[in-house]
Amino acid sequence: MHDRIRSPTKWNEIRAYKSLFRNEKLFLPPPKDGSDFKELFKRLAAAGAGRPPGKDGFPAGPWTPELLAEAISQIDSNSVGVDLRTVQLWFQENEKGVSAANIRWLARIFGCDDPVATSEWQVELSAAQSRLSAKRREWKRNGNGVALAVPDMPPTAPSDDGSEHSAASIQDSDANGSSQRFGLARKSEALFSLGSPLNLPASVFAGITALGFLSYVFGIHSVTYGRADGVIKQVGFLWTANWTSVFMVLLPLFLAFVTELMAFWKNEGRVKLVSQGGRLESDDAWKRNVECYSYSYWAVFLICVLFAGLFQWVGVSLMPLMNGGGDYATDWGSLAIVRPEVISVPQAVVFTGLAYLYMCLCFYLFFVGLILLYTVIEDLCRTSEAASSLQEVGYQHELNVAGHRVMRTLFRCTVLGVLIAISMKVQSAYLTSSGENIVAWLVDDMSSAFYERNDVSAMIGYRRPTHYSSLLVAISTCFVFVYGAIRLSVDRRLRMHLWWMSAVVAVLAAGYLLIEAFAGFSILLGIGVLLAIYGLINPGFGRWRAPELGGDQSVS
User: What letter would DSSP give residue 80?
Assistant: First the structure.
């Protein structure tokens, strides 16, 4: 009898309990009690909001960082997922916030995939994050850091202003505080992102300047020699296009453009697009992106230092100097063989060793720049895909600004890379030609197209390894450009400029491939160089309209 009387109450309790679940997941309504993000997230994680019930029908328990990261990554529309390190920061006793993109995924979890509940939780989480940011600003004004407010923070946790608690420890430790091995990728990326943007270009320029002065000391800055066929050739160090023009002009400009893009992307572009909830989250994600290409950095380092540097120096310079000859055309490096009165063999060994060491390190920086360009493009595209549902005008405007900035820099670096390859191939072709110096040789070739003088490019059968290395430079540079053009062409306004950029790169590539192919090839080469110079100054070719002036402004 008593059970029958109490049964309606039991049924009401059962209905109330079932109402806690939506889509077979534990649902808690937004409290709207003025909590900041840390307070709100702590309660939700402890209650296991958004988790499906256990086998017994009761809540399955609290969230853990691993479970929550896995749940967010399994959301269908989330193609990027979330990093475990980011989720761990939400659970830690610090003042780390949450980005706008991750607020959306948390709202999906706590809203149990219910559209109305998800919208309510997105509003609540955004408001909680704003309250957390306001508290951080208040702590800054009062001069109280989070390290004082939360004494049990781990040594690698961030402070409230986005800076690291210990710069040395966060660079050399992972999420668990354990020591990491030497990271070539991180060290190489730091060369482009730390310090002044002039550091790398100035270092490269200083190196070639020092080699130029050293060539004066040895007397090989401007030297001629008589070839066996009677041609007098200029082989001085300062006359070599693949040294003076590349390391004095082209490579410093390339490094300056990459460094400028890195400063923009890390300090401004990425922070606005990804980490509106905190700077440290953006920095950590970028470091992880750089580490993903660690094998690429090591592969490039080994090829540049061992093969392009050490082995090439031994095979092209050292062995011919020691043996008194070889199958390579005479240049400043082997001048001691034909003009021993100008420079001795020991002096030539020392000078060529320093020159090749400098060259291989510079080309390592060049390929690191290409890897970083590729990384920025990939990072930008992933950011765009992850936030594809955010239709706010301000966010889309920032996305367009970043896309245009990246593409302009990519085009300029591609032009400079192909010009570097052209300089290398032109110098190699000149050494085996009948021209007296490189300028006169190009002028004679240009005039031969009109006067049918086909003897200016007559070749002698020497081995030319620079042809192969220049091809690697050209292919690598063009690959990054094509990849960037494909990934970034989704922007209709940017696609219009890509046609102009692609046309200039195609003309330059054709000029490179057709060197020595016919009499008058230098005409096509000259046209490509003129277009390249204009493109470096104005990547939009007179049609660019800066998107920074307004989000709705046309760039056509």
Answer: S
Rg, Å, the chain Cα set: 31
How open is the CA angle 473-476-479, to the nearest 5 degrees?
145
In DSSP notation, 8-22 reads: HHHHHHHHHHHTTEE
Q: Is 463 helix (H, G, I), strand (E, B) or coil?
A: strand
- In 3-state terms the chain splits into helix, strand, coil percentages (rounded to 5) of 65, 5, 30
What are the backbone dihedrals phi and psi of residue 477, each rounded to the nearest 5 degrees, phi first?
A: -65, -45
Q: Report the Cα 254 to chain-centroid distance in Å.
A: 13
Beta bridge partners of 233: 225
Q: In this structure, are residues 82 and 72 in contact, taking their beta carbons and an 8 Å threshold?
A: yes
DSSP letter assigned to residue 182: P
Q: Please tell me the distance from the alpha carbon of residue 462 to that of residue 470, in angstroms, as a whole number.
A: 17
For 133-156, what is each residue's pLDDT tens digit?
888 777 766 654 443 333 333 333
Cα separation, 117 vs 121, in Å, equals 6
pLDDT, position 341 = 92
Residues 204, 251 contacting (CB under 8 angstroms): yes
Give the chain's end-to-end CA distance (angstroms, integer): 83
Q: Is 184 buried (19+), middle (13-18) or exposed (0-12) by CB count in 10 A?
A: middle
Q: How far is the CA of 226 from the CAs of 338, 352, 437, in angstroms?
A: 9, 22, 12
Q: Output the six-digit token pair for 334.
A: 């082997």
DSSP H/E element including 292: helix 279-292
Q: What is the pLDDT of residue 462?
A: 74
pLDDT tens per residue, range 157-195: 333 333 333 333 334 444 333 334 568 999 999 999 887
pLDDT higher at 426 or 393: 426
- Mean pLDDT of all residues in 122-136: 84
Beta bridge partners of 48: none
| Residue 76: how many other CB atoms lie within 10 Å | 7
Structure tokens at 289: 């992106």
What predicted TM-score, i.e. pTM, was given to this entire model?
0.70
Write out the two tokens for 511.
Answer: 């000029």
| pLDDT at 158 (0 to 100) | 38
Neighbours of 479 (CB within 10 A): 13
- pLDDT tens profile 299-328: 999 999 999 999 999 999 999 999 887 778
Average confidence score pLDDT of the chain:
80
User: Where exactly are the structural domains of the chain?
Assistant: 19-149, 187-549
**Tell me, what's the pLDDT at 48?**
83
pLDDT value of residue 140: 65
Write down the residue that tokens 């399955």 correspond to.
60
Looking at the DSSP bridge assignments, the partners of residue 224 are: 234
